């Protein structure tokens, strides 16, 4: 598993560099082809190609499908390996994309190998989909992964687990981004202040109102992460804008937040507000993973593993599949930490057990 992980990690695959990503895609395709699975490479214009791997059960009549979902793109640009090489130390494997989520792809590969070698009968066709733009919002792969999810009875997402305990992610917040732009009127701050409409003052009042919408208990957050506006101190600013991060655990809260944003009205009668954007990933509500989690937990117990769950604030492609009403279990990937940082690593010893758990899930669904 470690040798395979090394091959995947040493092929750098930033979401925004197609040539490099395609090379990594080829390495992953080659590994999967070795095991007799049907590997299709779906060409992409601007992003790395997508891999779709099918493994049909022996039976002639297929009775459904299970989707194993993940991405091979990483947040690290090419050349990162020079500063952050693939290495192992004290039971951990380090390197860009080890945890998020190339080790997950390795675990899935070994799960499939185990199912083949043990000739475990499968009730359903297995489809593994490895996409290339999850880290930048999945614009290019979304349609494909949603189409595949609609054909499936369940979706297993190989995103990293949470904490050294390897918790599954049974709920994820929906995530969005909105821009609030205030249009005022410029004027000389000394000569004609009465003729100006200060866009910064208006924006500040709007932000104070918006801040009150935060409801940590319900999992609703709104964060002004960027503000800008104005030119000089003696000019009443004509324009100011804020970029907001939006998160919600429930679909109803997501809609409510979007409605409230659209309903904002200026405090100053002469100011004009422009609101753009909204949620780009809906929440993965816990009810969409509850039944699968119970099954995963009981399978884990038979393997003498304890399996916990958690709710996280970040989204994944599991948010899309759950929003379609397809049962989705996320965080089945590697155990480790430091995602998107120089400390990114996986716990090597946890990899076989996680692969075994996935194999058990795929053979009992
Ligand atoms: Zn990821």
Could you please describe the fold and organization of this structure?
The protein is of the alpha+beta class. The chain is built from ten helices and 18 strands. The strands form five sheets. The chain has a six-stranded mixed beta sheet with strand order 1-2-6-3-7-16, sandwiched between helices. A hairpin with a 7-residue loop joins strand 17 and strand 18. Helix 1 (2-9) packs antiparallel against helix 2 (18-33). It is elongated. The mean pLDDT is 96. Bound molecules: zinc ion. The site of zinc ion has 5 residues, from helix 4.
Total number of helices: 10
Q: What would you call the structural class?
A: alpha+beta
What's the SSE pattern?
A: HHEEEHEEHEHEEEEHEEEHEHEHEEEH
Distance between the termini: 25 Å
Cα Rg: 24 Å
Strand content: 25-35%
The proportion of residues forming helix, as a percent range, comes to 25-40%
Silhouette: elongated
E-strand count: 18
- Low-pLDDT stretches are none
Average residue-wise pLDDT: 96
Keywords for this entry:
32% helix; binds zinc ion; 18 strands; alpha+beta; 365 residues; elongated; six-stranded mixed β-sheet; four-stranded antiparallel β-sheet
Put the structure in a nutshell.
The protein has 365 residues and is α+β, with helices and mostly antiparallel strands. Helices cover 32% and strands 26% of the residues.
């Amino acid at each position: 598993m470690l040798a395979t992980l090394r091959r995947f990690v040493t092929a750098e695959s930033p979401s925004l560099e197609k040539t490099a990503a395609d090379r990594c895609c080829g390495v992953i395709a080659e590994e999967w082809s070795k095991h007799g699975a049907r590997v299709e490479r779906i060409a992409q214009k601007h992003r790395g190609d997508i891999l779709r791997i099918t493994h049909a059960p022996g039976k002639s009549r297929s009775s459904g499908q299970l989707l194993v979902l993940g991405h091979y793109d990483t947040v690290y640009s090419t050349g990162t390996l020079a500063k952050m090489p693939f290495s192992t130390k004290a039971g951990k494997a380090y390197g860009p994309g080890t945890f998020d989520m190339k080790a997950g792809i390795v675990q899935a590969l070994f799960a499939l190998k185990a199912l083949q070698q043990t000739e475990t009968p499968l009730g359903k066709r297995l489809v593994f989909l490895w996409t290339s733009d999850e880290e930048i919002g999945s614009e290019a792969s979304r349609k494909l992964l949603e189409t595949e999810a609609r054909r499936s009875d369940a979706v297993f997402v190989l995103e990293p687990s949470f904490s050294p305990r390897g918790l599954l992610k049974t709920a994820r917040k929906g995530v969005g981004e909105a821009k609030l732009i205030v249009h005022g009127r410029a004027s000389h701050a000394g000569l004609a202040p009465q003729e100006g409409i200060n866009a910064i003052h208006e924006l500040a009042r709007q932000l104070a109102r918006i801040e009150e919408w935060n409801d940590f208990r319900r999992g609703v957050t709104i964060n002004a992460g960027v503000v800008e506006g104005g030119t000089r101190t003696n000019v009443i600013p004509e324009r100011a804008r804020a970029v907001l991060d939006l998160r919600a655990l429930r679909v109803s809260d997501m809609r409510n937040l979007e409605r409230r944003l659209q309903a904002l009205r200026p405090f100053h009668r002469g100011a004009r507000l422009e609101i753009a954007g909204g949620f780009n990933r809906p929440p993965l509500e816990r009810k969409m993973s509850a039944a699968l989690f119970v099954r995963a937990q009981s399978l884990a117990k038979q393997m003498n593993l304890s399996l916990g769950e958690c709710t996280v604030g970040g989204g994944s492609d599991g948010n899309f599949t759950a929003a379609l009403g397809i049962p989705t279990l996320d965080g089945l990937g590697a155990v480790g930490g430091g995602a998107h940082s120089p400390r990114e690593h996986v716990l090597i010893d946890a990899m076989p057990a996680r692969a075994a758990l996935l194999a058990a899930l795929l053979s009992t669904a």
